[in-house]
Amino acid sequence: xxxxxxxxxxxxxxxxxxxxxxxxxxxxxxxxxxxxxxxxxxxxxxxxxxxxxxxxxxxxxxxxxxxxxx
Length: 70
Description:
single chain, two-stranded antiparallel sheet
């Protein structure tokens, strides 16, 4: 068991992890904070956030829209 765990730790260390930073994203968020009262409508808050997501200047996509995965 110890050999398997050691192998897994070494293997994970070899894997390259790539981070995506906000400044590298093509999106901007006009709203960065939102308050929801206890028992408030989470759906309404999410709609406000989705309406605030835009493409950064220089990126054009006439069909850009946010879709729900419902």
